[in-house]
Q: What sequence folds into this?
């Protein structure tokens, strides 16, 4: 009789195997949901920080590019300040390091990187800028412009003339007085946050007329 009573009390006060398994399963599900939430939050925070770093890196590069373009000058060989003006590439002459020597500078979009190429002149009559001597650096990454332009060119009639500005390609380099730079930045275009558009205008001081 005592044994039966003891067994009855144990069953009454304890949990069945099914109840234990259900409790463990619920607990495990809650843990997985919590861990997934934490993991997603961590990834989102990390992605936002990386996006911020990429944007800041691009800003510094573009600000430097604007300074160099603004001071575009005739080359040491007597060439016109602007060499080439395409939708995703711009080549010009400028004294980029204030040493009284005019360098040849090229900015071009290669894949998702904005590349800066610099050629120092070789003294002579006239001076030469061998393309083999070009030194390149990456000034911005994760550029998502695709086939869209990063350079827009305007003539001296802008902003009054918005019909012919920005000028269509191929651009007459002699007519360029103002340039708009537009970069779309995103380290992963398939994830939030959305694209960051970096836009700047630069006037070529040594070529301006009515601007």
A:
């Amino acid at each position: 009789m005592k044994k039966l009573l003891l067994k009855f009390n144990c069953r009454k006060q304890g949990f069945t195997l099914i109840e234990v398994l259900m409790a463990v399963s619920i607990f495990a599900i809650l843990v997985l949901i919590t861990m997934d939430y934490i993991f997603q939050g961590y990834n989102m925070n990390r992605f936002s920080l990386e996006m911020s770093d990429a944007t800041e890196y691009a800003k510094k590069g573009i600000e430097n590019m604007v300074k160099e373009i603004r001071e575009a000058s005739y080359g040491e060989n007597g060439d016109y300040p602007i060499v080439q003006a395409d939708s995703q590439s711009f080549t010009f002459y400028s004294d980029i390091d204030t040493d009284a020597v005019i360098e040849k500078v090229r900015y071009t979009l290669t894949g998702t990187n904005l590349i800066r190429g610099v050629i120092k002149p070789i003294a002579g009559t006239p001076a030469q800028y061998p393309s083999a001597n070009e030194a390149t650096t990456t000034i911005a990454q994760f550029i998502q412009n695709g086939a869209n332009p990063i350079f827009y060119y305007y003539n001296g009639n802008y902003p009054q003339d918005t019909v012919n500005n920005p000028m269509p390609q191929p651009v007459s380099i002699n007519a360029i007085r103002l340039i708009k730079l537009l970069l779309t930045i995103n380290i992963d275009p398939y994830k939030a946050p959305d694209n960051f558009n970096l836009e700047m205008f630069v006037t070529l001081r040594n070529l301006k007329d009515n601007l």
